[in-house]
Amino acid sequence: MCSKQMWSRRIPALLLLFCVLVPTTFSKTAFLIPPKSQHFFELTNVVSMHDLSRTSAEEASYILRSQLKVNSVWNTERDQLLEVFITYSKLSAPAKARKSSKNADITKIPDRPFYVSLVAGKPHKVIAHTSRDQSLLNLERGFASLLLLQYQNGPVTEVDVSGKCNAFYAVKSSTNIEKIKTDCSHWDLKVNYRAEKALGITQVSQEIVEYELSAEGALMQAISSEKHRIGLAAKPDVGSEVSAKFSLTHLVESADEVKQLEFDKLDDAVESLLEWYRVFDIEADVDGAISEIKDTTLKNEIENFSADFTSENVGKQSLARAIAELLPVARITKQPEFVEILKSHKESVHPAIDLLAAVQTIDAHNAITEIFNFNGDDDVEFLEQYLQSLAVGTHPERAIIEDLFKRLQTTNENEKITNEKLQDTVIQTVAALTRQSGFDPNDPLLQQIRNYLLDNLSEKCTEIDCKIIYIRALQNLQDVSTIQTLFDRAFNGAAAESVVALQALKSFSIVNFNEMQRRSLAEIFYQNKRKFDSSARVIALDILLALKPTKEQLSELLRYLNSNDQHFEVKTFVIQKLRMVAEKCPRFRALLKSCLAELPEVNNYHVIGQKGLTTVLSRELSQTPAFNETLLSTQEIYQGVLKRGTVELLLGADKDEFSSFKIGIYTSGLSSFVGDEEDVPEDEADDSPATAGMELTVQGILLRPLVFFSGQGELMGHVWSGTASDPTPAYQATILAEDHEHYVILASGATVYMRVVGTRSIDLNGKVEFSLWNRNANTLIKQNTGAAVVGRMVAGFTYAKVENKFTLTSEPQISLQADIDFYSGVKLCMKLERPDLILNLSNTKSVYLTPSSYYKHIRTKSTHKLAGRTLALNQKNNEMCNLIFSD
Question: Which of 244, 305, 411, 563 has a CA 20 to 30 Å removed from the CA of 482?
């Protein structure tokens, strides 16, 4: 009993003694390489490449083994200078025959040493020969970084070969220490990227370094293990992963005497080496050779895709893939070659124009302006195609924006844009590119463009159509300083102007709106001061709901449903919008349920069962293993006729959604043909001219609208001639989607390069059949899309590299059919369908050993099929369809 009590008293004392002695022991040995000694180490680097699906057990990897002779040639109690010789190096990789390997010696590494300076025991600089290549210099920095070690538990910020990192140390024992590294600055060296999360990539990176020390504190082994996983944000199971192990293992200590540099200061010792050497920071630089495109031209590459690179393939995955594959080469191509391609490929001029738009360099732009003329009507079709594809780009060169803006301002008659449609497109493109460039708010070019748009809107435009052009441009610009101008137009402008201004406001993030502006939106919806167009009211409601209404605000909206307002279609919109938001948001659903429970005068069939035909719905189009896509449809009916309808495709990534494509149809003045004016107040009858058109928003960029007809004469001309009874193209283009490029520096100093290019080839067409005799109409809008994402991850250095190339292709389609019977009353039946979808994924893993010209490829393919579906709309639509097709 006594011995137990004595032992229990000794345990805390022993623990305290250990905690004191361990740091003291470490602090006595400031250097992992003892002073004035010579040691031999084996340096090993294993780099492996994987596809995320891991469909093949075969590995694409290489192993570098080097022997190092490390001499401590100068030191004080705090500082040290190490001299390091690479005595031999060899490579190995899995052979083409399984269970064997291919070896190659590296004979070109110079026999001159490199040096590492340590300050306070920590690696500080690398002193290397001026002729060293970037890969070798980075490897030397990697060696130096393995000597970076702290001797106390806890977090710390360090700078090593991977840049500035957050590190956490765990002292396991007096001879074992573990370091976990996260958030290194050189793990995410972006070149190009998209701000929209759904079109971006996800990256997970981590490194663990384990140290084994001798009892005296000398380094016996350091092992760095790291992984970098990069996948598509919208489809995280597609991508690549590189894993690497970088180790330094002690072999033997030599008894040879190490000649010392006779200097009093470290700086003087380093200075003595600088006749043939240079001093480098420990942070690595990107080895650009890993991403170089060699021995090819764009013209040659186009020939390789000659069967796919044609106008006939628009809307197909073959053309989308061809442009995605060609884009990296095109971005380093110069103007003369672009001009030659445009002149010699007349049969594929449309794909070539889309390719040059995706390039976004001034060389590509100058080639377009050299071939096509902005002054006149002959080249309008080609220039509009170029500008609309260019507008969705992510990083246009500034000179492109300056050139287009100059063309808008010129007073030279020979350079003026005389075609009104082309001028509209240039205005929208300049605004969109300015927004995509992310200029500083004080940037002179941004200020000039913003002032140009505002001046034309407020002073030079006298007609509504002119004002609408510049309001749409403000939507594409999305400059927060223009929000109040848009509110003024929405609140005080004519009906059409108000609707377009509210559409522009809806495109802004809700964080930019204040309480006063929220009240202005409420006044528009409730028509407190004057009457507003029904389209303006429903858009205002969209923004109000996005602003997350309070319980009092939501209750006010519900009480509106029981008001004497005769706009049943607006009330129907409110009900369906509330239901849709409640389905997606549990918090809002609970709030809505609570409000309805307190409002029995609203929560009944008489109020909730509105008789309007307006439809608001959200439907899931596809999910894993395909992309997560949702369809959002709004069909606003007025007097029995579609007044404004939208079909929007949303691409999801985690909780974020991105509008990839939006079709908007607008009409007015059609009530006399197919309308039902029952219950419509006399002062609100639609007596405006018969007009109809289409608005397209591509990846958040609003394009110039397409006008189907304007005036009763044009309408009747289409009816009698059957102009659109056959499928008619409304939009055909191959546009850039994913566009990501960045580098990662591994612990060994090896460079990882990642590039992802995604394209969408879109063919949107429609047809209309109209019969005044039978008093019915049939419309069909069909979108064929060819989608391709091509990704490449390569890791390595001068003498070896591993690579994975993945290609994801599909051809999603969607069709919207509407049948209208206005023989007796108005009956509208809509069918929304998505055919079968096949998703193709291929991966090619490769390993290359430069000294022996050895290579190996491992190819895998997989296919996923998603069954087609007809999307349910609502019960009212089902009833209408049953009535129309009852016979």
Answer: 411
